[in-house]
Write a structure and sequence with these properties.
By secondary structure, the protein is of the alpha/beta class. Helices cover 45% and strands 9% of the residues. The chain has 13 helices and six strands. Helix 1 runs antiparallel to helix 2 and helix 6 packs antiparallel against helix 9. It is globular and about 70 Å long.
Length: 346
């Protein structure tokens, strides 16, 4: 597997960041979470005046062999149909949010069971046309897993050349809440029953069936529950590619906007490999997918939003971006008491 140089941001500047924030024209601590975000951005960028430049949002797409077990209400072809829909530039949930907040949107074929036209605009990094059914065998080979990590990292390196320093990730893959539930139970040691949710809209009977299928997959698993083994045995190509992308983003000291259930599982896996990655993460929202709250809690993560969303695509990450932007603007646009000729009033 590719090696990444990821270090937690140096702390020496933290006191100066807090001093600057405390001396802006406001009561101490009165801007709450914005002040915390400003410190995080300043630490990541090692400056008292952090900036956000060229925000990008990358959607990784892939299909899953586990859909053969009827764990999703949506047919598999929705994966490729939605990918083409995103690239039309209109109509998708992620499209209006990217337009609204100035994000460049890219869609990567990590393993979709479809041949996209060469002129579709899809970034073709296909490893295979969908993973294997992990009830019966590992979802991917070790070589495929390594290739996903490397290709996800390469996407982010290319994006970084544009000057991007804040990046969000999303996914498109029918059935991918199933591998996510297994990542959660194996890597966060949360009981499987609490990890399994409705996905795209399963009813009570459908959720129970999904749980029994995933329970069978766990019963057949004889691995060591390391992050590498869990990704290989139960992963999706789009999920593992997102892990590689997140690791590269942290190595490049980018701010990582984390979306909902599936992308939180991706940063969970990434943090099992490199715990320092969490210093670069801003968790956008708590989704309505069962288990997401518990997963965030296990990571000691405090999401910015809780809007009852469970669309995926990275919508929660992009939706939370303006709050991060406000934190950075606070640092650069508010006067200090001295600069504003205002007497400290706390």
């Amino acid at each position: 597997m590719e090696h990444f140089r990821i270090h937690a941001p140096e702390e020496e500047i933290k006191e100066a960041l807090q001093h600057k924030i405390d001396n802006l024209v406001k009561p101490k601590g009165s801007l709450g979470r914005l002040e915390e975000l400003a410190v995080r951005a300043g630490l990541i960028q090692q400056t008292l005046s952090p900036v956000l430049t060229k925000p990008h949002h990358i959607i990784f797409a892939g299909d899953h062999g586990i859909t053969e077990e009827h764990v999703s209400v949506s047919p598999k072809e929705v994966t490729w149909q939605q990918c083409l829909h995103f690239l039309k530039g209109c109509g998708g949930g992620i499209n209006f949010l990217c337009r609204q907040h100035g994000f460049t949107l890219q869609v990567v074929d990590a393993g979709v069971d479809y041949d996209f036209p060469p002129d579709s605009g899809i970034i073709d990094l296909k490893v295979r046309k969908g993973t294997r059914n992990f009830v019966h065998e590992a979802a991917m080979t070790a070589g495929e897993m390594d290739l996903c990590i490397a290709r996800g990292a390469a996407v982010v390196r290319k994006v970084s050349y544009t000057g991007c320093n804040v990046i969000g990730f999303g996914e498109m893959g029918i059935g991918n809440t199933s591998p996510s539930s297994l990542w959660m139970t194996c890597l966060a040691q949360i009981p499987l029953l609490q990890c399994v949710g409705a996905g795209a809209g399963l009813n009570r009977e459908g959720k129970y069936h999904k749980y029994r299928v995933l329970e069978r997959a766990l019963d057949n698993y004889s691995g060591d529950c390391s992050a590498e083994d869990v990704m290989r045995c139960f992963g999706g190509y789009e999920m593992v590619m997102a892990v590689g992308a997140m690791l590269q983003a942290a190595a490049l000291r980018m701010i990582i906007l984390v979306d909902g259930f599936i992308m939180t599982n991706c940063i969970l896996a990434a943090s099992c490999l490199y715990p320092e990655i969490l210093s670069y993460a801003v968790f956008g929202h708590c989704s309505d997918e069962a288990g997401h709250f518990l997963l965030l809690e296990s990571l000691h993560a405090r999401p910015l939003l809780s809007l009852g969303m469970r669309l995926g695509e990275g919508t929660g990450a992009v939706c939370a971006y303006p709050i991060l932007d406000s934190a950075v603007r606070m640092m650069n646009e508010m006067n200090s008491f001295e600069g504003g000729n205002v007497t400290k009033y706390f």
